[in-house]
Amino acid sequence: MNVSSSPAILPESARRGRRKEARPGELLDAALDLFVEKGFATTRVEEVAARAGVSKGTLFLYFPSKEDLLKAVVRKNIAGRFAEWEQELESYAGTSSELVRYCFQSWWERVGSTKAAGLGRLLLLEANNFPEIAAFYRHEVVEPGHRLIRRILQRGMDRGELRPLDLDYAVYLVLAPLMFLSFVQPSPSLCILSPERFSPQAYIRLQADNVLQGLCVRPT
Amino acid sequence: MNVSSSPAILPESARRGRRKEARPGELLDAALDLFVEKGFATTRVEEVAARAGVSKGTLFLYFPSKEDLLKAVVRKNIAGRFAEWEQELESYAGTSSELVRYCFQSWWERVGSTKAAGLGRLLLLEANNFPEIAAFYRHEVVEPGHRLIRRILQRGMDRGELRPLDLDYAVYLVLAPLMFLSFVQPSPSLCILSPERFSPQAYIRLQADNVLQGLCVRPT
Amino acid sequence: MNVSSSPAILPESARRGRRKEARPGELLDAALDLFVEKGFATTRVEEVAARAGVSKGTLFLYFPSKEDLLKAVVRKNIAGRFAEWEQELESYAGTSSELVRYCFQSWWERVGSTKAAGLGRLLLLEANNFPEIAAFYRHEVVEPGHRLIRRILQRGMDRGELRPLDLDYAVYLVLAPLMFLSFVQPSPSLCILSPERFSPQAYIRLQADNVLQGLCVRPT
Amino acid sequence: MNVSSSPAILPESARRGRRKEARPGELLDAALDLFVEKGFATTRVEEVAARAGVSKGTLFLYFPSKEDLLKAVVRKNIAGRFAEWEQELESYAGTSSELVRYCFQSWWERVGSTKAAGLGRLLLLEANNFPEIAAFYRHEVVEPGHRLIRRILQRGMDRGELRPLDLDYAVYLVLAPLMFLSFVQPSPSLCILSPERFSPQAYIRLQADNVLQGLCVRPT
DNA sequence: AATGAATGAGTGTTCATTCAT
DNA sequence: AATGAATGAACACTCATTCAT
After folding, report:
1. Burial label, B22 (beta-carbon count in 10 A; 0-12, 13-18, 19+)
2. Does an H or E element contain D49, and which?
3. Does B70 map to a domain?
4. Which chains touch C (3 or more CB pairs under 8 A)?
5. What domain range includes position C54?
6. Residues C84-135: pLDDT tens digits?
7. Overall domain count for chain D
8. Could you tell me if B51 and B130 lie in one domain?
9. Is A215 close to B42, i.e. CB distance below 8 A?
10. Is B114 helix (H, G, I), strand (E, B) or coil?
11. Which among C125, C135, C180 has CB closest to D39?
12. What interhelical angle do B23-38 and A118-129 show, nearest 10?
């Protein structure tokens, strides 16, 4: 259609009228943005609706309550990509160093650089207020994530490429730098000194490097 | 005080009197707890007052508004310990490895294990809502912290004990694991699989170890 | 109609077509039911539409507003049966006792046992909110009803069959039992102890009996 | 106090300030008035508050929700006067005619002429919407009322003063005229032709008369 | 200084009504 | 004629803040 080729032609009339299939997605995107940026309690449903280009009433046509909107946001942004990820791991042929680097890098590409990255931060606080949602997130995201990392580290130990580790804590060697980045990104000015010059990619690279090699000089 | 000079007559009011100066502190403690646990917006001033054992009205006697209460919480819990810390660094005689380990450990003792640890998380989530407070925290805590870590790493590089690093990113090698812990601690169930069995000390130790040595086996 | 001339082609739309004229009636029936059962304010237009098997929008095609729907409900269910009733009275040949009994009985058959009975109760409760509608009902139903009863009682007094009565109050001797029944019927559990066993006919019979004979034993 | 003796002195300042004990009662009175007049759904809590001379928020200080306000209204206006009434019946020495007349008259004095009379009408509709409240009313008011009337009629039959009756229906000979009056009173214009000239006392007297003697002339 | 009753602006949610299709 | 997506005014309820005592 020439709508997409010339977006200037039908901007207004397209926004009006019925768009039943598109609405929920637009609302969920708007909600994710605002919830991550301002928090759940501070975000008014009217703001969400406005950002999605509809009225307050319309939002309630698709989501029975603000809390249900949050649930839907969480559900939508939890792609079950872990299956795919585990596949890749099974068939990975390279060294453990390469695998860890690949893991950091592909987390950035698939999660960290997307809007979904803010979800963790959002739930960080709301976990106490909405235990049910937190449990869902935990089950769908956190647990699979832990399992994946453990397997990677175990593989490295099995192959003699990684030093012996207590896996219960070693998981966080991978998790902490990634989570820190996703927690901090939506309001970088608090923790990052020069947000303008900060390159997440460079951050990821150094963290991957160092989790493998450590700070100390190595005898060559 | 003449209150204590007539102990038999005013036993009740004496208890009150003794506490009078402590009130603001108790309110700030209660506020920190609740803000960290439930978030700023979700916490009602009445809850804060109740936890501090006073009435809602009394709270407003000491703090003109809920936001001012938050500001006061931030101010109180930002001890200017960086001066002391920098002192210790100047006069530190050991190796860089020891210094980094000491840094992790003493962060845990002085910050991570205290209630103040939750402050970062609180402000992380409210940074966008209260830029002024965030800027204050940034200036008083984040920037000195960054400087401290940079100096430690620089010292290590100067002494040839640490490998060459881009300090702009290397700071986060230290910061990320510590911040992750303090962000996650108040609602551990979200990110930590077995919160009951989780030992922050063991976490700290492994992170310090690994930031120095890395995961890879080292040739002996 | 040419719709029926091509029955094979448009079987669906034919059903629609046949119903087209019936729509308003079905909506009015549904509205009466729901208004009487749940009250005007508590009934949503969507419910009315749903019960009539059409969409919300369709209802507004026939009735410009919810209040107009109520007006139409009232208008439809006020059959001008009083003319016929008065006729019967004029030509009635029996005793006054028989006439009163006949009056009770035929009220039950023509009004009390029909859905229209609930109208009185509905308007009783909404009279203060919609004075205009109440005035209409009063003029079309209440006043003719009063006149009818007065005439019956007057006839009885004239014929020496009924004791002398102040007609301004005596009307309610007939009205009260009938109205009570119609007010109470739609939610009988409130006033009637065993709604399952309650027979309106038996109620009507006893009330008619007693309004004529009274409770006291009569000397034979 | 001279407050009551000179009500003009402190009219305003008295209304402000704390009146914790008086508030609930004032709110309940206002609520009963408005609920009876306009119905539950149509009455806004703000109106109730305004009529009681307080703000919307204050109402919620005393009643957690609008529905709870309704419950409290019902509870408050159900005086347990049935015990007293049954006492009077036990010890009543006169004829059954006198007793029935007394019953009609004292219902008017104790119930019909008070604001509580509107309760029945209010619940008539809300019974379907709030079954729990209806059940309470039924248990506290309707059932004791039925029992009382049955006993009166039974006594009359036992003493040979009243004709044989099926009590299950005879109760309504007493109930219907009284209930009709209380249902109709709050918006008399609907059913009563000349509300200005209508005397409830005259109504009560005639109904009592007639329930005993009937319309038909009696041989003397 | 302390209380807690009172306030009212603000927010989530409902629902009669409109209108593009 | 019929639909049902969209609207926004209206209302129940919350809670930071005030103030008389």
Report:
1. exposed
2. helix D45-51
3. no
4. D
5. 11-65
6. 888 998 899 999 999 999 999 999 999 999 999 999 999 999 999 999 999 9
7. 2
8. no
9. no
10. coil
11. C125
12. 120
Residue nearest to nucleotide E2 (CA to C1'): B58
Weakest mean pLDDT among B13-17, B122-126, D166-170, D171-175: B13-17
Q: In the structure, what pLDDT confidence band is assigned to residue A17 with cuts at 50, 70 and 90?
A: low
Claim to verify: residue A153 and residue A187 sit in the same structural domain: yes
Q: How far apart are CA C219 and CA C11, in angstroms?
A: 72
Nucleotide nearest to C19 (CA to C1'): F1
Q: Is A119 on the interface with B (CB under 8 A)?
A: no
Looking at the structure, do residues B211 and B117 belong to the same domain, yes or no? yes
Whether D37 and chain C come into contact, CB under 8 Å, resolves to yes
Residue of D nearest to C95 (CA): D216
Q: What is the pTM of this model?
A: 0.89
Same domain, C48 and C91: no
Quote the CA–CA distance of D121 and D182 in Å, as a whole number.
Answer: 7
Q: Which chains have 3 or more CB–CB distances shorter than 8 Å to chain D?
A: C
Interface membership of A94 toward B (CB under 8 Å): no
pLDDT band at D219, cuts 50/70/90? confident
- The answer for residues whose C-beta is within 8 angstroms of residue B218's C-beta and 6 or more apart is A163, A218, A219
Q: Within a domain: residue A190?
A: yes
Give the CATH number for residue A59.
1.10.10.60
Separation CA C71–CA C122 (nearest Å): 12
Substitution target in B70, B133, B157, B216 with the highest count of A β-carbons within 10 Å is B216
| Chain B and chain A touch, per 3+ beta carbon pairs within 8 A | yes
A129/B38 CB distance under 8 A: yes
Q: Clarify whether residues B164 and B201 are in a common domain.
A: yes
B71 in a domain, yes or no? no
Predicted confidence band at B23 (pLDDT cuts at 50, 70, 90)? confident
Claim to verify: residue A150 and residue A117 sit in the same structural domain: yes
Check residue D54 and give left, alpha or beta (phi > 0: left; psi -120 to 50: alpha): beta
Does B165 reside within a domain? yes
Are A163 and B103 contacting, i.e. CB atoms less than 8 angstroms apart?
Answer: no
Are the C-beta atoms of residues C36 and C122 closer than 8 Å to each other?
yes
